[in-house]
């Protein structure tokens, strides 16, 4: 990742963070409405899709010379705010406290598998761009 500093860089991260937070809210709410909240499906979908997007963006930015402002806006700001490790941790412990050990373990393994797979797929997709790849 390119190092970014200064006022413009900070604004790019702030704008991306605002957009990512709103996107996380909408996506998680939509998924939870459709699949229910007995399992943290919304957070799982957000984290998996965010990992895929982060991998794709990393590859695309590497292919295009990685403009620091775009990296701050999209990768650091948007993806950093869109994905939600804190919600994942709290929801997993809530499942444990409710006696849902199998669901808690399933959430940990599903999150790990889907986010690592998503990041890998994003990197592979980005590598298809002429001159792309990390």
UniProtKB/TrEMBL annotation:
Main location: membrane
InterPro entries, A to Z: FluC
Keyword RNA-binding in record: no
Membrane topology per record: Multi-pass membrane protein
Annotated catalysed reactions: fluoride(in) = fluoride(out)
PANTHER family: FLUORIDE EXPORT PROTEIN 1-RELATED
Protein name (database record): Fluoride-specific ion channel FluC
């Amino acid at each position: 990742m390119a190092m970014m500093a200064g006022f413009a860089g900070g604004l790019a991260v702030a704008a991306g963070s605002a957009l990512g937070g709103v996107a996380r809210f909408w996506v998680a709410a939509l998924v939870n409405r459709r699949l229910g909240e007995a399992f943290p499906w919304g957070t799982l979908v957000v984290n998996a899709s965010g990992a895929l997007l982060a991998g794709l963006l990393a590859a695309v930015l590497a292919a295009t010379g990685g403009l620091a402002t775009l990296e701050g806006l999209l990768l650091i700001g948007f993806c950093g705010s869109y994905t939600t490790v804190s919600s994942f941790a709290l929801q997993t412990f809530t499942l444990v406290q409710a006696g849902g050990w199998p669901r808690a373990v399933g959430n940990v393994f599903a999150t790990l598998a889907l986010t690592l797979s998503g990041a890998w797929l994003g990197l592979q997709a980005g590598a298809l761009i002429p001159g792309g790849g990390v």
